[in-house]
Design brief:
The complex is a heterodimer of chains A (361) and B (303).
Chain A lengths: L1 H22 L6 E6 L9 H8 L1 H7 L3 E6 L6 H12 L2 E6 L5 H10 L4 E5 L8 E6 L1 H15 L4 E6 L4 H17 L4 E6 L6 H13 L4 E5 L5 H9 L2 E6 L10 E7 L2 H13 L7 E3 L6 E4 L7 H15 L10 E2 L5 E3 L7 H4 L16
Parallel strand pairs in A: 1-2, 1-3, 3-4, 4-5, 5-11, 6-7, 6-8, 8-9, 9-10
Antiparallel strand pairs in A: 10-12, 13-14
Helix pairs in contact in A: 3-10, 4-5, 6-7, 6-11, 8-9
Chain B lengths: L2 H28 L7 H17 L4 H25 L4 H20 L5 E2 L5 E3 L14 E3 H19 L1 H11 L1 H6 L4 H27 L2 E2 L7 H11 L4 H23 L6 H19 L3 H7 L11
Helix pairs in contact in B: 1-5, 1-8, 1-9, 1-10, 2-3, 2-4, 2-8, 2-9, 3-4, 3-8, 5-6, 9-10, 10-11
The chains are: A alpha/beta (361), B mainly alpha (303).
């Protein structure tokens, strides 16, 4: 058994060194492969990842070679394509979707010379960093703006799946809104799909018909929700990249993500040979999360408060998830004065009081 | 607006893409041919229609081009499945995949762009009614689809053409023996089905959700296909099934906005469950199912 394991290891090492020898002569540019779950459009998640490589290209020019692999379904296809990308000599692999996790981790373990960055996962290895954005810091600010503009006192959110990342966004949105109007109510429609523009539009229309007059498009990659809100004349905002051009009149703003600083730092570390895998949960302070394209409809006094709060979040003196926070079932979630840790935030599976829609279990 | 009036106002439009595609497939299957490529034909129609509207060609031209693209894909299907007598299931799936691939390719540079839809037309008088008023404010395509539903129902019920198509589907050999050109009739039916699927795609991408995103048909073609089977090849039941599916889809969203304590996963599955159960109950009579079923469905025919 031991001998067999030894033979396997040597075989792997031989293959790995053969691939390495082919891929890495000094003059060759550094290959960076970016695997995307959807086509690279003008807006949306995939677009922000592609845009995140701009600072890398700006800094290194011809010393890096970017390969975009668009619209790759999670599962065996993705594993095969990522393996091929690495076999082709790419040394930095950016796996742009949660479902790529296992395949990407196998690649990282097989070849320690490859650096893997993986979106929204939880696994960590010496050459493997998961990365995620603290969207909740931005949605808290959006909640403040939304509450100041709502006449009905009802806000709505079209949300993809009830997973912690999206739940925290809704909760922080609600807490931010309550900071301006304590009686505000938030309704959520979980559409249970990452991608169905027609269903997302129906959900937004349903919320609007129930009197919600600010809509939060939570994790929709297309302007489906934003476009409907413009038509209906209600304010709306979204995550990742600005969709202002789709709603010039009623666009509230965008909780934008800029992966540039993180990608650049990771590539720098890879080039210097001192990359260390770690869980990268990045927010306003890291310049990864930033609210852009604020609507001019927001009252000036509220805008001042928002700017102040944003500065406090950036310097670390304010955490949106600071107690007292009550859960939707009236039990205490966080005691007064206590701030939730990152680990608690990424595991959040309850709604705060004020979210009217029951959370699916 | 109450939840009920929201559902009533939206269900016809929600049902229209299903209904258009399912009516086309009904004619195809009644003639004895099984075309599983609807999803891809819809996707191609959707992207072409979107591009026409995006470049200012207008909705009429958009729907025309979408129908034409549906006919072209249907002819590819017809050539392989009817002309060369290849397996209809395999050819249908292949044409569907071809359509989806083409739509991704053609739509690549239009990803996530938006256009404006078409205005809604109100039936005077009826649209002013409380609660149900919204039912009578619909866009032109919805009204035309309702007219098409009635026309296809009448065709199968009263016309000679309807009887001939059914004969071709029931027993192509007998139909041929009394002098009907079976292959040619089936080809016409397949072309009609393709055109209707193309229109369904055009409606989805230029009216119902006026934007293009790769994969936006999101399984609607398969639901249309299922509606034909669960509606036991009867126009009225297919119409009812599509309407039910549309209404329950909206109801499942409204339930969440009204904060019902029902898990959203269950609500998301509800349109499928309700449609299957209701149509299943309607069609539980095995004898009727056999009477309505198409005897030679999917069988290659060669004289």
């Amino acid at each position: 058994m031991q001998r067999r394991a030894f033979l396997q290891t040597t075989a792997f090492a031989a293959i790995a060194s053969a691939i390495g020898a082919r891929g890495a002569s000094a003059a060759d540019p550094l290959g960076i492969a970016l695997v995307l779950p959807s086509p690279n459009g003008d807006v949306g998640w995939s677009h922000t990842l592609v845009a995140g490589l701009d600072p890398v290209i700006a800094a290194y020019g011809d010393a890096v070679k970017i390969t975009l692999l668009e619209n790759i379904a999670e599962g065996p296809d993705a594993d095969r394509i990522m393996t091929k990308a690495v076999a082709d000599g790419n040394k930095v692999l950016i796996a742009g979707s949660f479902g790529y996790q296992n395949g990407a981790m196998q690649i990282a373990k097989r070849d320690p010379s490859v650096t893997v960055l993986h979106a929204s996962g939880y696994m960590v290895a010496p050459n493997f960093s998961p990365f995620a954005a603290k969207y909740f810091q931005g949605t808290y600010l959006m909640g403040m703006a939304a509450a100041s503009l709502s006449k009905s006192g009802k806000l709505g959110s079209v949300s993809a799946f009830a997973i912690p990342e999206l739940i925290t966004s809704v909760n922080a949105f609600t807490l931010g809104a309550q900071a301006v109007n304590p009686d505000i109510e938030v309704s959520v429609v979980w559409v249970n799909t990452w991608f169905d523009p027609a269903k997302e539009q129906e959900a937004a229309k349903a919320l609007i018909s129930q009197g919600c007059d600010v809509i939060f498009s939570n994790a929709q990659d297309t302007p489906s929700v934003i476009a409907v809100c413009e038509e209906a004349g209600v304010h709306a905002f979204n995550l990742n990249s600005s969709m202002k051009s789709y709603a010039p009149k009623t666009y509230l703003g965008c909780v934008a993500t800029d992966w540039g600083p993180f990608f650049k730092a990771s590539v720098d570390a890879h080039m210097a040979g001192n990359f260390v895998g770690a869980n990268a949960f990045l927010g306003v302070a890291d310049k990864v999360v930033e609210v852009v394209d604020w609507s001019s409809d927001i009252p000036a006094d509220i805008m001042t408060r928002i700017t102040e709060t944003e500065a406090k979040i950036a310097d670390g003196s304010f955490n949106p998830f600071t107690g007292p926070i009550t859960k939707a079932d009236d039990s205490e979630a966080v005691a007064a004065g206590v701030g939730m840790t990152d680990a608690e935030i990424v595991a959040m599976d309850w709604h705060v009081k004020g979210v009217a829609t029951p959370l699916p279990q | 607006m109450s939840g009920l009036s929201f559902i009533l106002a939206g269900m016809l439009a929600a049902a229209t893409p299903f209904l258009l595609a399912a009516l086309g497939e009904l004619v195809v299957e009644r003639a004895g041919v099984l075309n599983l490529g609807i999803e891809g034909i819809m996707a191609l129609g959707a992207v072409l229609a979107f591009i026409v509207v995006y470049h200012g060609g207008g909705h009429v031209a958009a729907f025309g081009l979408a129908a034409l693209s549906g006919v072209v894909l249907a002819l590819v299907f017809g050539w392989l499945a009817l002309g060369l007598r290849a397996n209809q299931v395999a050819v249908g799936l292949a044409v569907g995949i071809l359509g989806q691939g083409l739509s991704s390719l053609i739509g690549n540079s239009y990803e996530s762009l938006t256009i404006t839809g078409i205005p809604k037309l109100a039936l005077p008088g009826l649209s002013a009614l409380p609660v149900v008023g919204g039912l009578f404010v619909q866009d032109a395509v919805v009204w035309l689809t309702l007219a098409a539903t009635a026309a296809i129902w009448a065709m199968f019920r009263f016309s000679r053409l309807g009887l001939i198509l059914r004969a071709v589907g029931e027993n192509p050999h007998a139909a041929r023996a009394i002098g009907y050109p079976v292959i040619r009739l089936r080809l016409w039916a397949v072309m009609f089905g393709g055109a209707m699927s193309g229109l369904a795609g055009a409606y989805a991408a230029t009216v119902y959700t006026p934007l293009w995103a790769d994969g936006m048909i999101a399984g609607r073609g398969w639901i249309a296909l299922a509606l034909v089977v669960f509606g036991t090849w009867l126009t009225g039941r297919i119409f009812f099934g599509a309407l039910l599916f549309g209404a329950v889809s909206l109801a499942s969203l409204v339930a969440q906005t009204e904060n019902w304590a029902v898990p959203s996963q269950l609500l998301s599955a509800l349109p499928y469950i309700v449609t299957i159960v209701v149509l299943g109950i309607i069609t539980s009579n095995k004898r009727l199912l056999k009477v309505n079923g198409v005897a030679s469905l999917g069988e290659p025919f060669g004289p």
